Amino acid sequence: MTSSTADVGAQLDLDAARAAYDELRAHGLSLDLTRGKPSSAQLDLATPMLSLPGEHYRAADGTDTRNYQGMQGLPELRGLFSPFLRVPVEQLIAFGNSSLELMHDTLVHALLSPLPGADRRWVDEERVRFLAPTPGYDRHFALCERLGIELVQVPMTADGPDMDVVEEIVAVDPSVKGIWCVPKYSNPDGAVYSDDTTRRLASMPAAAPDFRIFWDNAYAVHHLTEHEVEIADVLALAADAGHPDRPFVFGSTSKITLAGAGVAFLGASPANVQWWLALTAKRTIGPDKTNHLRHVMFLRDADGLREHMRRHRELIAPKFAAVNRILTERLGSVSGVHWSRPAGGYFVTLIVPDGTATEVVRLAGEAGIALTPAGATHPYGTDPEDRTIRLAPTFPELAEVERAMYGVTDCVRLALAAR
Ligand code: PMP
């Protein structure tokens, strides 16, 4: 992945690269590859849901979903998602529209009230730190920054975080209270945690008695191929290893049904679930059960969910294929440049030679192609190598993705040729 300036420069003609870039700028584009949002065609798939539940607002057990209560969420929706999130239905909570919100609340609860197994509240600790497998999800990092939780960077591998590094830190440092994990089709590099990584996370000794895994399974059913990748059952492995309270599992339907009107889930041990529900009962009398019911009526069952995700795949897999095809065509032989080929999820990570990512993003921005700021994939927004760029191809139309990617490759070629 490292390459000398001479290697790269030799392959790229500065005049040709500049001419291509000037032509790109002349088009006055306005394209956006910044955020992992579903396209409107994807949202259209779930539009029929908006007329549900209609007059049929009673749950299977007769509960009137229009009314208060039902803190844990509708049992039939929890039953539908339980196998996909690998959380027993009685340990699964269905809540509001955002899993990020559940992660936020869980951190705030842990700061203000001792977790099961904790000696004290996190605000009473001298310092609280979280491991941040990097590259990772910028909103996880921003959440910790906002709450005064320090981030400790650990390297990502194709199998998940580098477990030798994780085990070494977690075993000796009681201020390390947690780790962020996106175990399937990770944001941004599409990595899938190996069973061995999950087993080691679930069973490693931890100096902090209240160490937690924030297992953000945001892309549990978001396959880009016919092969449905599955990851290990972190709750079961942790319980078997004597750490039942260690994982908090998160997920949502934001990229299944409607990004702004889906349902988010939290799964954990019975003790964690009880702790969370008791504290959350102070801030709400219960979640939106009509939305839960609407989801059950629309998705129906496991096969209905699979079929719905197949229709998403038909819309977005060609966009990911276009990204890979254009990168291969235009940058395949440029040394120091490589990228992820995810089998699911919403992102592609493009690695450019050290010291050039910021310049590529700047050039793209000036040509009307918005890219996520270089460094956003790293804690505190700083990529020390300045080489990681996150591409999010789901939102624009296919033709726009193609146009944007040709433009991005022009920017990479110019940034490298001009070095
Ligand atoms: N986790 C990850 C890894 C994500 O990529 C995203 C969305 N980009 C979220 C959580 C946000 O999920 P929600 O809409 O449920 O808050």
TrEMBL record:
Keyword match Transferase: yes
UniProt GO MF annotations: transaminase activity
InterPro entries associated with the record: AspAT_Ic, PyrdxlP-dep_Trfase, PyrdxlP-dep_Trfase_major, PyrdxlP-dep_Trfase_small
Record-linked Pfam families: Asp_aminotransf (PF12897)
Keyword annotations from UniProtKB, A to Z: Aminotransferase, Transferase
CDD domains: AAT_like (cd00609)
Coiled-coil region: none
Alphabetical list of PANTHER family matching this protein: AMINOTRANSFERASE, PUTATIVE-RELATED, ASPARTATE AMINOTRANSFERASE
Protein name according to UniProt: Aminotransferase class I/II-fold pyridoxal phosphate-dependent enzyme
